[in-house]
Amino acid sequence: MSALDNLPVVVIGAGPVGLAAAAHLHERGIAFTVLEAGDTAGAAVRQWGHVRVFSPWRYNIDPAARRILEDAGWVAPDADALPTGGELVAGYLQPLAELPALKHHLRYGARVEAISRLGLDRLRTAGRETTPFLIRLADGEELLARAVIDASGTWGIPNVLGASGLPARGEADVAAYREHALPDVLGQARDRFAGRHTLVVGAGHSAANTLLSLAELAGSTPGTEVTWAIRSASPSRTYGGGDADALPARGALGSRLRAHVDAGRIRLLTGFSVQALTPAGDRVSVAVRHTAGGEEAITVDRIVAATGFRPDHSITAELRLDLDPVMGATRALAPLIDPNEHSCGTVPPHGVDELAHPETGYYAVGMKSYGRAPTFLMATGYEQVRSVVAALAGDWQAARDVQLDLPETGVCNSNPDDSATGDSCCGSTSATEPTGRGLATGISGGLLAAPLGLVTLDAAPADAATGGCCGS
Ligand SMILES: Cc1cc2nc3c(=O)[nH]c(=O)nc-3n(C[C@H](O)[C@H](O)[C@H](O)COP(=O)(O)OP(=O)(O)OC[C@H]3O[C@@H](n4cnc5c(N)ncnc54)[C@H](O)[C@@H]3O)c2cc1C
Q1: Which one of 131, 324, 422, 424 is at 20 to 30 Å from 205 when CA atoms are compared?
Q2: 206-242 pLDDT per residue, tens
Q3: 236 Cα: distance to centroid of ligand 1 (angstroms)
Q4: d(C-alpha 333, C-alpha 448), whole Å
C-alpha cells in the first residue's frame, strides 16, 4: 500500500475538459476533487458566452459526461446545432456540474497557485513517484493528491501586444484601456465602444469577429471608429477565400470584413507592430512600427488584444516537466500540433503517452496541453482525459486505444497571433505526414456558422492536406 492510495486525483479547472475528466473518474470509481478558480462551472467559457462556436453539439459533449447526464434524465440538445458559449454552459456544463456524482467533489473559488511533491523540491529524486502531490491554493490552503489532471486552460493568460513576445513599452500602464479578446461589443460591453475609437490587434478569427461587431456598432452609433493592425503584409488569410472559399459561411463573412475595409469603415494597418503605449489624457497613444520602416502614433480609446493565449506554467515550476521549447506542450505532442509545421492543424489521436511528463502522475490536458498552438478542440480534450483516466485506473489497454473523430473543416490555421505562421494560410509544407485535421481555437461561429462534417482520424484521410483553404 502506497501513501498515494487513499488520496484523490485532483482536477484543476471545471471547464469542458476538467468536467469531462471528472465524469471519467466517477465512472472508473476513482476518488477526485475538482478545483475551480471561478464561481461557476465553465467560468472561462462564460466569458465568451456571446460567441457562437463552430463545432456542433455532437462534438462538444464528452461521452462519459453524456452517459451520466442521460442516466439522470438529461436530454441532449440538437446534435447539429451550434451553441453559443453561454448555451454550452447552460445546456451542458452546468447540468453536468450539478449532478450529485460531480457536485460534491467540485470546489469553486479554489485557485491553484502552485503544485509540488510533499516535502520534495524539484531536485529531490528518491521516493518521488510514491510521494503525494502538494497543491497550494491562493488562500494558502494545501491539499494532497495521488495525481493531478491540469485542465486550467489558457483563457486567463492573453498574449501581449508587443511583437517580440514581450510586452510593448508601457503596456502594463495602459491595462485600463486594454480589452481581453472577444469583448461583447454589441451586448454588455457596448458602452465601452459606442462613439469611441478602438484599435483591434491580431489577424485571427477572434479579431475578425470583434471587427465585424465594431463595424455594426459604427453603423448605428456616430463617432465609433475602428482601426485594425496586423503584422503580416496582407489580410488575405483573415478574409478567407470569398466566393471560392470551401466554407461558404466563412467566405461570406470574410467578404463582409473586406467590404468594411474597402469602404473605409475599418482602417487597416498592415505590416505593423505595436512598440509602445502611453496614457494620453483619458485615451491611449499607440506607437506602431511598419516593417518596411517608419513609425506612426495612433490615439485611441480602447485596444482589443486579439493576439492569442499562452499557458500558465508558473504553477508547475516545482514539477519535472519536459516541455517543447516552442509550443510549451509535451515534446511528444508538440510536433503533432505545431502550426509552423502543420499548415492544416493536423491532429492525430493522442492520449496518456503523448501527455506524460517525467513527473509521474501530472498531466496537462485540454486547451493547456496544446501550449501556444491554436488548434485545440473540445473533442480532442475529451479523448485525452478518457485515456489519462484509464491509465490512472491501470487499464493501459483502454488508455492506449486512442480514437478521435473531429469535425472536418478547411481552416488551416486561425492563429490569432499571425506571426506564428506568416501570411499564408497554407504557406508551409508539413514535414510530418498529416493524419487528420484540426480546427483553430477562437474561431467564432459568426465566421463558420455551418455544421461541419465528420473525419475519422485513425488513418490519414486521402485529402487531409487538401481541404478548404489548403486545397481549393
Ligand atoms: C471563442 C472561442 C471559441 C471556441 N470554439 C470552439 C469550438 O467551436 N469547438 C471546440 O471544440 N473548441 C472551441 N474552442 C476551444 C476550446 O475547446 C475551448 O476554449 C474550451 O473551453 C477549452 O476547454 P478547457 O476545459 O481546456 O479550458 P477552459 O474552458 O478554459 O477551462 C479552464 C478552467 O480552469 C479554471 N482555472 C484556470 N486557472 C485555474 C487555476 N489556477 N486554479 C483553478 N482553476 C483554474 C478556469 O476558471 C476555467 O474554468 C473555442 C475557444 C474560444 C476561446
Answers
A1: 324
A2: 898 899 999 999 999 999 999 999 988 999 888 876 6
A3: 28
A4: 27
Residues 6 or more apart whose Cβ sits within 8 Å of residue 33: 8, 9, 10, 11, 105, 106, 107, 143, 145
Strand 405-407 and strand 178-179: pairing?
A: unpaired
Q: Is 241 helix (H, G, I), strand (E, B) or coil?
A: coil
User: Can you read off the three cell numbers belonging to residue 120?
Assistant: 520534495
Do the Cβ atoms of 309 and 158 come closer than 8 Å?
yes
Q: What is the dihedral sign for C-alpha 267, 284, 184, 221?
A: negative
Q: Was domain 163-305 assigned CATH 3.40.50.10210?
A: no
215 membership: H or E segment, kind and range: helix 205-220
**CATH 1.20.1250.20 at 9-156+310-400, yes or no:** no
Residue 403 Cα to ligand 1 midpoint, Å, equals 22
Ligand 1 atom closest to residue 379's alpha carbon, by position in its atom list? 11
Measured in Å, residue 196 CA sits from the centre of ligand 1 at 30
Q: Where in the chain is the domain with CATH 3.50.50.60?
A: 9-156+310-400, 163-305
pTM greater than 0.85: yes
Cα separation, 410 vs 257, whole angstroms: 19
Kindly give the interhelix angle for 248-262 and 205-220, rounded to the nearest 10 degrees: 50
- Ligand 1, atom 12, lies closest to the CA of 377
What residue's CA is closest to ligand 1, atom 2?
Answer: 442
pLDDT, tens digit (0-9, with 9 covering 90-100), for 53-87: 878 899 899 999 999 999 999 999 999 998 999 99
Q: Does 208 contact ligand 1 (Cβ within 6 A)? A: no
Closest ligand 1 atom to 367 CA = 26
